[in-house]
């Protein structure tokens, strides 16, 4: 039996007086495609940001790929992680954000090659070869020398996906990646994600309001409300036959 690649155990996250996650536990198996859905403010993005080490936790334990995140085992006890450890953990996870976050003064190719060259010491020629393969995969090889400002939102988001993939992460996190796009540009980004899901064995966690896409993409759907998992299950169960009233109310409003 395979071990979970992500294990969250009793996670508490507070922002000042506000408790955003209140004893959250969940596990994700290697290769699993997970959709996190639920009302705004229920803590979905916070979970992704914690996994990406962009936020720390107020309590609990997290294991990613067998290693503790934020705490390391030393001489049998857990001590806070140092920067080197966090750096190592960050390489296992790629994240794509709602607002692309491309480097505006770098061309598309440099956006994709920068992290492998700087953080992994990959030679420019090898980084560029890999970047061109990834840009080809997202349908943007011909834009390698363009600047981000010359691209549409959908194209920028596809570059951001290629950039996250350049470090060959085991886990990819997608945070409402189509929310900032004009409706006609959404599908080109979803198509890239469909392809990734079909052609790779990466573990993928997706926060989304695109319920149709979540249904087709996910192996499992988690419905969050107020920092807790209210209901989880196969897409058909959650979308067609939810048992919890809060899930039913949410889906009635959104679909
Ligand atoms: P979701 O992704 O489900 O919409 P979030 O994880 O973004 O929810 O936010 C959960 C709650 O945490 C919200 O109430 C939000 O306002 C709050 N929050 C998120 N980030 C911060 C922050 N940096 N400082 C204070 N509050 C925050």
Automatic annotation (TrEMBL):
Molecular function, one GO term: ABC-type amino acid transporter activity
Bilayer disposition of the protein: Peripheral membrane protein
InterPro entries linked: AAA+_ATPase, ABC_ATPase_HisP-typ, ABC_transporter-like_ATP-bd, ABC_transporter-like_CS, Ectoine_EhuA, MetN_ABC_transporter-like, P-loop_NTPase
Pfam families according to UniProt: ABC_tran
Entry keyword set: Amino-acid transport, ATP-binding, Cell membrane, Membrane, Nucleotide-binding, Plasmid, Transport
Xref: PROSITE patterns: ABC_TRANSPORTER_1 (PS00211), ABC_TRANSPORTER_2 (PS50893)
GO cellular component: plasma membrane
Subcellular location field: Cell membrane
Similarity-based family: Belongs to the ABC transporter superfamily.
PANTHER family named among the record's database cross-references: AMINO ACID IMPORT ATP-BINDING PROTEIN (PTHR43166), GLUTAMATE_ASPARTATE IMPORT ATP-BINDING PROTEIN GLTL (PTHR43166:SF9)
Name assigned to this protein: Ectoine/hydroxyectoine ABC transporter ATP-binding protein EhuA
Organism listed in the record: Sinorhizobium mexicanum
Gene that produces this protein: ehuA
